């Protein structure tokens, strides 16, 4: 059986390979390929922060390329990284305040996504310069808690999904705003997962639920246009 870290590394290399293919094939894919950079924040949801809390947003960034078809569909490969964290002390729940745990975790992810554009954003004969969209896909996550109190796997499959809007400023430049959620298959992003390892119920998490995190970002993109000589 392949080591989980090896699988994650190969998934990241696959995303890098797709980015390189996009760069090599730009002349043939002109007007269909966008390269983009995103800046924003990650926010975690789990045992320490059961719901999305804006005060838990930590810095995050990403690099992606997008391939646009002419039928409302865009395909995207993306690499992202940043921090997540939360504190029981900021919760309104007296039980969490008594537990008083906190964590910070560095995460890296690679994902392959499909976007559905609601408006005709690509076909230049009829296109307008903005569109809302929804997206979904699959990815791999690697994470490193600042404190790891037990031996557990620090990688997971993720299922990213969300909504966004993109706008062409002045070709070849565009901007976008996106909010997405990453469903994970691990309960250890906060170092508080799995079956209880102590009789002290105060410091136990809920093994029945998995952690997740969210990504809100602003992005800027550059579209490669081919100049056709007469």
From TrEMBL:
Residues 19-228 form the DUF6089 domain. Pfam families: DUF6089. Signal peptide: none annotated. This is Outer membrane protein with beta-barrel domain. It comes from Dyadobacter jejuensis.
């Amino acid at each position: 059986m392949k080591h989980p870290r090896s699988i994650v590394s190969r998934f990241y290399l696959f995303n890098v390979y797709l980015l390189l293919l996009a760069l090599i094939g730009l002349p043939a894919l002109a007007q269909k390929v966008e390269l983009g950079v995103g800046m924003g924040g990650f926010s975690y949801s789990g045992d320490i922060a059961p719901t999305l809390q804006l005060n838990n947003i930590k810095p995050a960034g990403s690099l992606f390329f997008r391939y646009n078809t002419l039928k409302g569909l865009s395909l995207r490969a993306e690499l992202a990284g940043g921090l997540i964290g939360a504190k029981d002390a900021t919760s309104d729940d007296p039980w969490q305040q008594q537990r008083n745990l906190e964590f910070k975790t560095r995460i890296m992810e690679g994902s392959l996504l499909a976007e559905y554009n609601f408006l005709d954003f690509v076909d230049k004969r009829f296109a307008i310069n903005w569109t809302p969209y929804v997206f979904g896909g699959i990815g791999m996550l690697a994470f490193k808690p600042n404190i790891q109190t037990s031996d557990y796997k620090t990688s997971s499959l993720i299922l990213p999904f969300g909504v966004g809007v993109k706008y062409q400023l002045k070709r070849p430049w565009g901007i976008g705003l996106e909010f997405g959620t990453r469903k994970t298959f691990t309960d250890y992003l906060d170092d508080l997962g799995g079956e209880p390892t102590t009789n002290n119920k105060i410091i136990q998490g809920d093994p029945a639920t998995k952690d997740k995190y969210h990504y809100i970002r602003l992005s800027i993109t550059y579209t490669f246009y081919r100049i056709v000589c007469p």
